Automatic annotation (TrEMBL):
Occurrences of domain PX (ranges): 1-118
GO cellular component: endosome
Native species: Leptosomus discolor (Madagascar cuckoo roller)
UniProt-listed CDD domains: PX_SNX10
Listed Pfam families: PX
Protein name: Sorting nexin-11
Length: 149
C-alpha cells in the first residue's frame, strides 16, 4: 500500500517575474521499495518535468504517465489552473508509484523522500555526492523535515 498526495500549493516569490508554485508531496507506504515509510517534501513543476524525463530515459519500453500541461495561456483563474495542475501531478505520481519498473529508479526515491535539488539528486545517483541514495533519504528523515519517526 502506497499513498501519495500532492497538496498545499504555494506561490513563491509572488509578484516578481520569477514567481512559481511548489507543492507538498506527502508519501505514506508499507512498501519495502521505500527507505522511509512516511515523508513530506516540496517540489515545483519543473522538477516533475525533470523526473518524468529521467524516468522515460531509464524505463525502456515501459510507458511513463503524462504530466499536466504547462499552459501559459490558461483561460480561467490562477487558482483554478493551480488546482488542475495539482490534481494532474497527483495522478502522475499515483501511476508512477504503482509501476514496478518506475519504482526501481533511485531518482524517484530521492525526489519523493529527500529535499535534494535536481543537480544534487543526479550527483547522488551517479555516486558523486557525499551520501548514498539510502543515506540521503535517511538523513532527511532523521532531520525531522521529512516527517518520519
Amino acid at each position: 500500500l502506497t499513498t501519495v498526495r500532492v497538496q498545499d500549493p504555494r506561490v513563491q516569490n509572488e509578484g516578481s517575474w520569477n514567481s512559481y508554485v511548489d507543492y507538498k508531496i506527502f508519501l505514506h507506504t508499507n512498501s519495502k521499495a521505500f527507505t522511509a515509510k512516511t515523508s513530506c517534501v516540496r517540489r515545483r513543476y519543473r522538477e516533475f518535468v525533470w523526473l518524468r524525463r529521467q524516468l522515460q530515459k531509464n524505463a525502456g519500453l515501459v510507458p511513463v504517465p503524462e504530466l499536466p500541461g504547462k499552459s501559459t495561456f490558461f483561460v480561467g483563474s490562477t487558482d483554478e489552473f493551480i488546482e488542475k495542475r495539482r490534481q494532474g501531478l497527483q495522478q502522475f505520481l499515483e501511476k508512477v508509484v504503482q509501476n514496478v519498473v518506475l519504482l526501481s529508479d533511485s531518482r524517484l526515491h530521492l525526489f519523493l523522500q529527500s529535499q535534494l535539488s535536481v543537480p544534487q539528486i543526479e550527483a547522488c545517483v551517479q555516486g558523486q555526492g557525499s551520501q548514498t541514495v539510502t543515506g540521503a533519504i535517511l538523513h532527511y528523515a532523521m532531520s525531522n523535515c521529512g516527517w518520519v519517526q
